[in-house]
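Homework-ish question, so no full write-ups if that breaks the rules, but can someone show me the predicted structure for this set?
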Amino acid sequence: MDSVSYSALTPLSFLERSARVWPDKTAVIYQRRRLTYSGLADEVSRVARALRAAGVEPGDRVAYLMPNLPEMLIAHFAVPLAGGVLVAVNTRLVADEMSYILRHSGAKLLIADAALLPTAVAAAKDLDTVLRLVVAEDAEIEPSGPMDTDPPGAALAADPRLVSYPDFLAQAAEDPLPWAVAEELAPLAINYTSGTTGMPKGVIYTHRGAYLNSFAQIVHSRHDENSVYLWTLPMFHCNGWCMPWALTAIGGTHVCLREVRGDAIWAQLRAHDVTHLNAAPTVVTSILNADEAGPLTRPVLITTAGAPPSPTTIAHMERMGFTIVHVYGLTETYGPISLGQFQPEWADLTADQRAVLQARQGVDLIPAGKLRVVDASMADVPADGLTMGEIVMRGNTVMAGYYRDPEATAEAFRGGWFHSGDLGVMHPDGYIELRDRAKDIVISGGENISTIEVEQALMSHPDVLETAVVGVPDDKWGERPKAFVVLRPGASASPEDLMAHVRTKIARYKAPRDIDITVQLPKTPTGKIQKFMLRNAEWAGHTNRVHG
Amino acid sequence: MDSVSYSALTPLSFLERSARVWPDKTAVIYQRRRLTYSGLADEVSRVARALRAAGVEPGDRVAYLMPNLPEMLIAHFAVPLAGGVLVAVNTRLVADEMSYILRHSGAKLLIADAALLPTAVAAAKDLDTVLRLVVAEDAEIEPSGPMDTDPPGAALAADPRLVSYPDFLAQAAEDPLPWAVAEELAPLAINYTSGTTGMPKGVIYTHRGAYLNSFAQIVHSRHDENSVYLWTLPMFHCNGWCMPWALTAIGGTHVCLREVRGDAIWAQLRAHDVTHLNAAPTVVTSILNADEAGPLTRPVLITTAGAPPSPTTIAHMERMGFTIVHVYGLTETYGPISLGQFQPEWADLTADQRAVLQARQGVDLIPAGKLRVVDASMADVPADGLTMGEIVMRGNTVMAGYYRDPEATAEAFRGGWFHSGDLGVMHPDGYIELRDRAKDIVISGGENISTIEVEQALMSHPDVLETAVVGVPDDKWGERPKAFVVLRPGASASPEDLMAHVRTKIARYKAPRDIDITVQLPKTPTGKIQKFMLRNAEWAGHTNRVHG
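A: Not a homework solution, just the prediction itself:
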């Protein structure tokens, strides 16, 4: 509990301070909209009071389904200010997947962007735990932009829990709420991620962990009050690596963005003299290949995770004025936990030599957790750059656990370290490098896809006897899932039939574009499917280091 | 206790990490000496193991009496690594004052620079709590430099507890110690400071507080691994504002310095392309007025505390390539807790207008504590820039308390806030500004001098009947103590007699250079001395804001 010499670490304190220190500074830019820091704090306070009025009590979960709009940023402060726990849901999920998350988290409220309303309504349909469904219209939406949805009118009429965002806000009580939390280890957010099991798991972030990881982001990206940060990384992904909190702490400017497209990114880079963005490698590729690409007037630091960029990409980007930093982490580590820290003496190497060193996942951020590469008995593997082991982590920026899943938590935390499921090596200089993934996970465009989840979707088709899904190389997304299917005797489903079926079960980005119907799958003598044989055949000739 | 998701915050983790991430990078420069980060960690580990071998057990205090040498920097990690608590003693104190600190802290060891050995031996003479007195010779000392001391040989022979630093190190055990602490709220250091009572009080810093304040220093001074920090601020003063820990965390380079003189500072600035230094205003003046002063090749950020620099000084320094940042804090707040944060719109003001705004003590650092200006009932004064109140603080970078002094701690923490004793105003923009000091303290050259302590030294002369000491303006030191003395009837001591007496009792820098023998002191009808009347007369015509 707080005393003269102790106050619970919480990102709420960041906005409280910035609203005092930078009241008139631009906190948020979104199209024609602007919010100053005092305006942002006022809006956050209003939303928090509205959440309270809507019945949110300390510890209650509040789900958001929204692209990177100001309301999504506001949610990162308003939900904890109301005492709640933010559940930011991946906007690309299908209704059944969202429904699972809403049910598992027990979210009392779902606040959704109007463009996503049909999915939201379908997801919440059979859940009486969801008391209200708040729908936010985006006044800044481009009239010509893609709107692959029906107008919200019909859905609004259909569900009595629906309420418009302005009506929701109008209920806000008057009493201000304190920018503080009683316990710094209290949950702040739950982020659902696909793991080795088919069902997504709820990764719990604490106030303390997010506070400390915010400083990691500030220090390693060298943010200051002059930072102009473009929101290309989804806020629903690891809470945007804690950047909603970190950039607010330092008093920078958030540039919100609905559509993560090359042309839209370039327009924002130039309109607002952006200094920083974080993005999956696929977004980096979009930026590079956009028709609008060209020299920058102000240098931009791009932090990317997942697959390291190629030397060609790095060189190309640097000529335009970008600097690329490569980081590594998981949802379970609040986003990045390590970075490919550049060493001064690397400046003397050739671009190719440098790229090899920079492609490594590197060393732990400060303040963050620690990383080791261990063998099955939890002993460190030799730091020889050759011996494979599992990457394990520990520290203040490792999740508190999986929500309502003590078994999975205990399994992930066995031996006193968090098991990433990633296989890697430790180099003699203390840098780690990923080599393969122990978990059955495909990372496509920065998002985890559980191969087991895809397999289960395929198995639910009556014609499928058995199946194996592996990640295969993809020029745009890094990798994508590919399915190998053995049909039941006499069955005749085509790959197209199976794809259509799968897309009713899981999000489009998870569904395999390639399905090979085959007569048998490679197996061990004991009958276990040997996925690595399928993977190796697909990756032959590719140099992606993660699968090298 | 540590778990997968929790590790106790401690500055020890900073060096552990930097030794891994930057093993070959220069951590310390001192004259011809160099230490890499791995070399620094090795040396720290050796000293810690030697401390253990010398009998230091968890929680034991270890005193250091040393200028800003590498060994003093090493102490900031080695003492806590050994489980001990660092007591860094002001090198300008006289033996009696040091003796008080050694006795009060119960320090088991005293490690002293050879040049300070006679004082150290005298201070420890009657204390059997001090088990050993380790004397460190400085191999880099300039042969022509001032050595106002006897060679250590004689003293070495005199005290059987004396041991040379190499002999002390030779006892180091083999077992490595973990770079961790069991409890983040455990004491890390005790800094003795003069308060309202005559005797110095031991301000307790915790691992958590120092860890968090280190990030405050990194973020607000924009440190990164390219930082080259010149050690002008004494490490014995608030542990150098936590910079031994902060700069090590970020992997910068420490430039050590024995003598804080203008010529020595300019030589180091130029030899090592220094980027940052922290200094009291008097040191800023020395830099400015040195014969060697001239344009810098690399910009230097100076952070200064105490009195804000004048517009003339700021303009002069900026022309040479310095940027000056003004901060405020106390020993009780781990050094700086606020800064005169520059606002972008100030760039459009005249230099004089800007200086007025920048001279204010400003807003709280992140991550740090909070500041308020309150009236006697602990209510906030109006934010009108006019209404005076006491500046109070609260948060993670407020001391844990005064060592072995629950009464003074309770008094300082009354009402749930730390009472700074400083009087100030709150401006409408949320910036605080000091106006006067409630405590009987003179700040001279950045060091606190208790007027009561000076008065007690004077009162110990048999001819003195009563006395009052106040701070008066001083061009070099900002202010200095001045004494008004009423002699006993028939007594005839001269000001010179009294000065000579005082200098046997307290450090030279605390002793008044001016003593007015007078027939009476201004008093209230109830007999209380009205120091403000003496002060006002002395400050007439001066514009120093603290005393304005």
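Now go work out the reasoning yourself. Hint: DSSP finds 18 helices and 26 strands in chain A.
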